[in-house]
Amino acid sequence: MVKRVKTILLLLVVGINYFGYSQTQATASFTASATIIQPIGITTTANMNFANLDAKSGGTVILTPEITRTSTGGVSFSDNTAISAAAFEVTGEDGFSFSITLPQNEYKLSNGSENMIIKDFTSSLADGGYVSGGSRIIKVGATLNVNPNQTPGVYNSQNPMNVTVNYN
């Protein structure tokens, strides 16, 4: 009888341990996914043109992203037909926000022998925007410093001025 009781107790202990361990563990499953978005891109659609200016006693010309010009000092405007803010098309994932980095330095416009300085760049979207319908247009303006009695001629930038966009 003692042998039988020991066997029953042994079976009970083994059974309790077996069932006790199986109740302390549970398993769940998961899946993984990733979405590759449209890379952000930017393309120049128009270059900046301050158009025809009369330097007179010099001053500044401010060209806004909305394509309006104002002047200080003695600079006057002779024609409005060729005015253009720089324009860019930003492409990317619909609904994603992006930031804009404008040129921070001063740049030279030169006719070969004389220079003017272009600086203080501004954007139609300030610090950034959202891609809508796969693209977004950005316009950029700046300030041009015109020297007194600036030599007549066509002045062009000597180095590229970059606009950079990044997803936020």
Structure description:
- It is a single chain.
- This protein is mostly beta strands and 168 residues long.
- It has a single domain (41-167), classed as Immunoglobulin-like (Sandwich), CATH 2.60.40.
- Helices cover 12% and strands 39% of the residues.
- It has 1 helix and 13 strands.
- Strands 1, 3, 4, 6, 8, 9, 11 and 12 form an 8-stranded antiparallel sheet that branches. Strands 10-7-13 form a 3-stranded antiparallel sheet, with no helix packed on it.
- The termini are far apart.
- The mean pLDDT is 89.
Characteristics:
mainly beta; 13 strands; 168 residues; Immunoglobulin-like; 1 helix
* Cα distance spanning the termini: 79 Å
Number of helical segments? 1
Biggest sheet features? 8 strands, antiparallel
CATH first level: which class?
Answer: Mainly Beta
Strand coverage percent: 35-45%
Helix percent band: 10-25%
Overall geometry comes to: rod-shaped
CATH names the topology as Immunoglobulin-like
Number of domains: 1
Over the alpha carbons, how many angstroms does the gyration radius reach?
A: 35 Å
What is the number of beta strands? 13
In the CATH hierarchy, what is the architecture at level 2?
Sandwich
Question: Which blocks of ≥5 consecutive residues have pLDDT under 50?
Answer: none
What's the helix-strand series? HEEEEEEEEEEEEE
Could you give the topology of this structure?
Elements: H1 2-22, E1 41-46, E2 53-54, E3 59-63, E4 69-73, E5 76-77, E6 86-91, E7 97-101, E8 107-110, E9 115-123, E10 128-130, E11 135-146, E12 156-157, E13 164-167
